[in-house]
Amino acid sequence: MARLDVKIKDLCLKNPVMTASGTFGYGLEFQDFVPLDGIGGIIVKGTTLKPRQGNDYPRMAETPQGMLNCVGLQNKGVDYFAEHIYPQLKDIDTNWIVNVSGSSPEDYAECAARIDVLEKVPAIELNISCPNVHDGGMAFGVTCAGAESVVKAVRERYHKTLIVKLSPNVTDITEIARAVEAAGADSVSLINTLMGTAIDIEKRRRVLSIGTGGLSGPCVKPVALRMVYQVARAVKIPVIGLGGISSATDAIEFLMAGATAIEIGTANFLDPAVTVKVRDGINEWLDRHGVDSVQDIIGCVE
Amino acid sequence: MKKYILDLTVKSVEQVHERYVLVKLTSKETLPQMLPGQFVEVRVDGSATTFLRRPISIHFVDYQQNELWLLVACIGDGTKAIGALKSGDVLNCVLPLGHGFTIASDKKCLLVGGGVGVAPLLYLGAELKRQGVEPTFLLGARTGKDLLMLDEFRKYGRVMVTTEDGSEGEKGFVTNHSVLEQEQFDFIQTCGPTPMMKAVARVARQKGIDCEASLENLMACGLGACLCCVEKTTEGNLCVCKEGPVFNIKRLLWQD
């Protein structure tokens, strides 16, 4: 049994496998399939200061080896999370991480401050990269100045590990990564979904209610892996890799590219037990190659 | 209810219609308990266009034979792949999912189905009969040959049919059937194309009959995690996969 633990600032993960926001609910939806305490970290769905109804149906289109979604951050708001969801999660031994979104830097900061006081939430992931909301979301993540403004505002009010989730819908993701590092982020996670669309040729109109959506699944993996490789070489803070990871092989590729930990997203829909399989697969690979710790392969690729 | 990921073995695939197949699945283990109106998320591998699991409603569970029956309309690449399965093949299923129908064994129940939407009503009717009440099935289709599984339905209750061309039963839509005028029902449960269910809901509201409908919004996860399959309800957007697929029509915003 190799060592699987990794560290992201003060966040200690028992293994590098986390779940991507919006694909694993609040974890509880999956507890018949996986022991939640066997997962390194569970990033719960996008949470905002005020409740949001999200976008209209249809919100999803299947694509070759992937899917588009335009859910639009449907959630009941941070106070509902703290009062009703958090008590159900806090005694389960994993790292509960809340994905935070907002429509202004002040919104993000206030939401983050209300999560700061939750003892069993050791980190947040700032979503400055949601392609499916008009008011904010990706608007902040596609310019260095926008990204900085949110991270600075949150940094003043949030004192634990601050992860910033980056959008791939930019010219140079390394610039944004450097900007959020300079603004005080402890880690960056990438990639969020790639903006796409789909057309219903019988109805002669776009499938999704808002026209566009975020593409995820195995089809985005090579793009995500390339960006993780680039960002890991551009910043000093730890990088969390995600984008189409469905197997231990995929996960190890991201680790070798320079990710300290990985998130599994869309693959949870195909195999609700995929997280622990990926964890076990990483361990088997390390054992088979006589590697003592997963930390020894992080960024090992030239 | 506990959910499972199971590799089930295909016992048989019977072509019951040019577009529909009846798939019988079994397992070495005893199948878990499933409720009428719940569904299965089936993994379909092998094609670039069949990435996500396919949600298929539970047609029947034969606990004596340890069989799960799925009635599948072979329309897209995924469901056609299910139709092409052979006996002995393995089908990976996540089950049982969602909230099913109310078993109203103290009521006079009318179960209204259209097209492949008749599927969950067989198991519902069987459960009602097991609990001591024989339901009335009102099943609609375009033509007589599109009526599915009638002999099975007849085992559990009275079967009335409508066809659009009048080739079998009364001519017209299910909502035109004379039984709705001639008899009083306490409870209507329906599954079929959305326009049909909305018409059935309208009749139920007019007559003041309690009514449940089973929706089939496009889904990804089937577990209430991705929030893709939402329906607007009196409580806001709810996941059809988790809060449904069966809803009391009072919760839906279907008022005309």
Overall description:
The complex is a heterodimer of chains A (302) and B (256). Chain A has one domain: TIM Barrel (Alpha-Beta Barrel), CATH 3.20.20. Chain A is built from nine helices and 16 strands. Chain A is globular. In chain A, α6 (221-234) packs parallel to α7 (248-257). By secondary structure, chain A is α/β, with parallel strands linked by helices. Chain B is α/β, with parallel strands linked by helices. Chain B folds into two domains: 4-97, Elongation Factor Tu (Ef-tu), domain 3 (Beta Barrel), CATH 2.40.30; 109-214, 3-Layer(aba) Sandwich (Rossmann fold), CATH 3.40.50.80. Chain B contains five helices and 16 strands. Chain B has helices spanning 77-83, 119-130, 150-154, 179-182, 194-207, and strands spanning 4-15, 20-26, 39-42, 54-57, 60-62, 67-73, 90-97, 109-114, 136-141, 158-163, 170-171, 187-191, 210-214, 230-233, 236-239, 246-248. In chain B, a hairpin with a 4-residue loop joins β1 (4-15) and β2. The radius of gyration of chain B is 17 Å and the shape is globular. The mean pLDDT of chain B is 96.
The general outline of chain A is: globular
Percentage of residues in strands of chain B? 25-35%
Question: Regarding CATH, which class of the largest domain in chain B?
Answer: Alpha Beta
Task: Count up the helices of chain A.
Answer: 9
CATH class of chain A equals Alpha Beta
Q: Which residues of chain A form runs of ≥5 with pLDDT under 50?
A: none
H/E topology pattern of chain A: EEEEEEHEHEHHEHEEEEEHEHEHH
- Number of H/I helices of chain B: 5
- The class by helix and strand makeup of chain A works out as alpha/beta
Strand order of the largest sheet of chain B: 4-3-7-1-2-6-5
Predict the CATH topology of chain A: TIM Barrel
How would you sum up the global shape of chain B?
A: globular
* Rg over C-alpha atoms of chain B, rounded to the nearest angstrom: 17 Å
Please outline the major beta sheet of chain B.
Answer: 7 strands, antiparallel
- Strand tally of chain B, please? 16
Radius of gyration of chain A: 18 Å
- Percent of sequence in beta strands of chain A: 15-25%
- Structural class designation of chain B: alpha/beta
